[in-house]
Amino acid sequence: MNNKLKNGQQNGIAKPGMPDVKAPVQVPQPQQTAKPTEAVKPSIEDRIQKVEELRSLTGKRHRTLETLNNLRTFNFGADDSCVLMVQDSQGHKFQTGNSNLVSMLKGYLEATLGDKVSALDDEILNFKI
Questions:
Q1: Whole-angstrom distance, CA of residue 117 vs CA of residue 38
Q2: Which residues touch 86 (CB under 8 Å, ≥6 apart)?
Q3: Which of 46, 93, 98, 107 could cross-link with 42 by S-S, CB 3.0 to 4.6 Å?
Q4: Pick from 77, 75, 67, 65: which is nearest to 118 by CA?
């Protein structure tokens, strides 16, 4: 049996809307990207900037801790021997000798400063250069 087709002959009937099987199909090839063999090293300026940021964080932590320790040195007695005075930039003053109020304010400030020290500790521990 002769399986060869003559020039211009078709084997079967072409259907409309079907791709021409004679045309080569272009399969898109994924683009190859260069894989970095090493992580990109930061420049000297970037490293210096990061070190300065870390130094700033540690400075804030040190000042906050110093303020907290200074606040903890105050002792209040029941004899109303303590006085709290707050003054703003325009000269307005608030002053009280109520030891309960001063003691409550001291407790609030200690808790706030303690939370701030903890937050700075976490930020310093998670800091990446």
A1: 37
A2: 93, 94, 95
A3: 46
A4: 65
Q: Does pTM surpass 0.70? A: no
Q: Mean pLDDT check: name the lowest of 1-5, 30-34, 52-56.
A: 1-5
Measured in whole angstroms, the distance separating CA 80 from the mean position of its chain's CA atoms is 47
User: Nearest 5°: phi and psi at 40?
Assistant: -70, 125
In eight-state DSSP terms, residue 5 is: P
Helix (H) or strand (E) holding 45: helix 44-72
Task: Report the pLDDT averaged over residues 7-27.
Answer: 60
Domain ranges of the chain: 44-125
Q: Where do we find the tokens 């940021």? A: 53
- Residue at 39: amino acid letter: A
Strand partners of residue 85: 95
